[in-house]
Amino acid sequence: MPGNMLSKGEVFVIETDAASREQLSSALQQSAYDMICFADGASLLSEAKARMPACVLLEMPPDRSALDVLRRLREDNCMAPVLVTSANGSIAMAVDAIKSGAADFIEKPFRTRDIVDRIDAAIDEVAQPGASRQRWLPGCEPLTGREGDVLEHLAAGLTNKEIARRMHLSARTVEGYRAGILKKAGAKNVTDLLRRIFGQGSPTQM
Question: pLDDT value at position 203?
């Protein structure tokens, strides 16, 4: 860690690629994080019960077992933000990750600087007093804070990529939040959703 900089916390990581681990370790150290690597989900879950990490970075293997690790972290009341990475990501996988509690879904190859920026953003989101706030659409399940933010940007006419840049997320992650909003609202697409919000379409008059 540079100089006498105080640690910003531990980042628990599962990453099978040695070169990526080395790059991540260097980038996180430069940003005052301590990186703790784990060989598998079981060892990470065991350590997470003993001490709370600042953030968790999970690589998604072909068997998608990272989703099980993510769900277990939430069941064990580990509230640290979790970022999921994948070399073979898809919109469906991103949606599943978000539904399981991921703060972000990042496709490989990635730049380590981007990863650190997204870790910072995820930790800041959790630390903000309003991070756990919920928003409502009449007649629907309440939206999370992140879903509410995405909805505001969609209503302003921003694209997924524009929203991703503003919220320091990946486009896949924004797609996951958007899918969650549409499902909760019972809307077929964003146009249908906005009609409901502005009272032009559905019987619910959202």
Answer: 36
